[in-house]
Structures are given as structure tokens and as C-alpha cells.
């Protein structure tokens, strides 16, 4: 029997749910922007079909926007994946500076909604402990 | 003290990690396809700049592809959000047929990787219990 679970069980689940819900909202926002740009692309095509000359500069900007949003989404999904894999392990070596920086990134959206910003000063030397990171 | 946490604590965290990791891989796959299409769009633009006439039919197909992938991503993110919010609640009314269907959708990718498919026959009448769904 591991008495820790009585303390971290319920709160831990709530925490994970909250973080993952926040990540899903972030991804949703990115998808909405990509969708908007794909919609604009279709509008462009309709205009071209009606004989309006193609503005290739605007179309290029549109492709750039989609790609930069994909990069943003990739970063979010990478963090989501790191977070997911950090809880499917039971115990491991954790460097506290790294964990703190990672938590700051994960919490950014929730903090921004309360008009807060975090900044992390990692310890000069790595501090590694063996624990369950979340 | 709630002795259940000793049983579900560690396994529950692993389960959540595994499901969220799987969701993140699904989203990553969708993003990769969108990115590929955005790359093709840029290639088109380069060709147009070099004087190749624009194939508006192909460009329209490309926009369609991006939008259908966005819809796919939206569905995944919606499930992710439902999953996240179902664990940040402690207890609630759960309809077992609904929960089973939802779990089937969530597990599809992991099952497909093992060449398995699930099909759910929900109970004819709703069966509602009060529990912690995950």
C-alpha cells in the first residue's frame, strides 16, 4: 500500500484533466486559424474562376500563415506528448530546472487567462531527483 | 482516506498518459498532412511565379484536403477535451453505453496498431451510474 495516492490521487487527476483541457483549447485555437486560412484559399480560387487575376503574393502569405500555425501546433503537441509520457512512467530521474521550465510552458495559457506571466530562472547546476514527476 | 486510490492511482495515471500520448500522435499525423498540403501550395505559387499557368482545380482540391484534415483534427481535439474534462471532475452521472462508445473512439488508434477493430452495441436502455468515469 502506498499512502501517497490518498493525497495525490484525486488532485493529481484533476490537475492532469485541467492541463490536458487547456492544451486541447490551445490546439483548437490553432486549428481555427488554419481553417480560416484554408477558407480564404477557397475564396481566392472562386475569384480566380470568376476571372479575377490571381494575387500570388497574398496566396503565398496565406501558405506561410498556415505553415507557421502548423509549427505552433507542433510545439503544443510535442509538449502534450512529453506531458503524457511523463505520467505513464511510474518513477524516473527528474531534473528540477527542466521540470519547472516545462511546467511553465504548459501553464502559460492558464496563466495568461488570469493576466499572469511566469519567468523561470533554472538553477545554475542541475538538481536531479528520483521521483514521479507529476 | 480513500483506499481506491491505492488500486487506481498508479494504473490510472499510466492509462491517462497512454491515452493522451496516443491522442497527441493522432494530432501529429493530421498536422503532418496539413503541412504537406501547405508545402504543395507554396510549390504551386513558385510555379505560377515562373510563368506556369495556375491549375485552379488542383489548388481547390488542396484547400479541400486541408479543410477535411482540420475537421478530422477538430474531432480528435473534441474527444481529447471530453476526456480531459471527465477526469477533472471527481464524480458524476455516467451513462455506460455512452462511456463505452467514447472509450472505443479513444482506443481506436491503439487498437488499429495491433490490427484490432472494436464495435460497440450500446444497451437498448440507458444505464446510468454515479461514479468517477476514469
Strand and helix layout:
Two copies of one chain form a homodimer.
Chain A: H1 4-49, H2 56-88, E1 92-95, H3 96-113, E2 128-131
Antiparallel strand pairs in A: 1-2
Name a few traits of the molecule.
homodimer; 134 residues; mainly alpha; two-stranded antiparallel ribbon; 72% helix; elongated
Short précis:
The structure is a homodimer of 134-residue chains. Chain A has three helices and two strands; from the N terminus they run H-H-E-H-E. Chain A has 134 residues and is mainly α.
Structural notes for this entry:
Two copies of one chain form a homodimer. Chain A is mainly alpha-helical and 134 residues long. Chain A has one domain. The first copy, chain A, has three helices and two strands. Chain A has helices at 4-49, 56-88, 96-113, and strands spanning 92-95, 128-131. A two-stranded antiparallel sheet of chain A has the order 1-2. In chain A, helix 1 (4-49) packs across helix 3 (96-113). Chains A and B meet through helix 1 and helix 2 of A and helix 1 and helix 2 of B.
Amino acid at each position: 500500500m502506498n499512502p501517497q495516492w490518498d493525497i495525490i490521487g484525486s488532485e493529481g487527476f484533476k490537475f492532469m484533466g485541467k492541463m490536458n483541457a487547456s492544451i486541447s483549447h490551445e490546439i483548437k485555437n490553432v486549428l481555427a486559424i488554419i481553417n480560416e486560412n484554408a477558407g480564404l484559399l477557397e475564396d481566392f480560387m472562386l475569384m480566380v474562376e470568376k476571372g479575377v487575376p490571381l494575387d500570388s503574393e497574398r496566396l503565398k502569405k496565406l501558405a506561410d500563415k498556415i505553415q507557421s500555425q502548423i509549427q505552433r501546433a507542433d510545439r503544443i503537441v510535442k509538449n502534450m506528448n512529453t506531458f503524457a509520457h511523463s505520467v505513464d512512467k511510474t518513477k524516473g530521474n527528474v531534473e528540477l530546472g527542466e521540470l519547472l521550465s516545462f511546467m511553465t510552458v504548459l501553464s502559460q495559457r492558464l496563466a495568461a487567462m488570469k493576466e499572469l506571466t511566469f519567468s523561470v530562472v533554472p538553477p545554475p547546476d542541475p538538481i536531479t531527483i528520483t521521483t514521479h514527476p507529476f
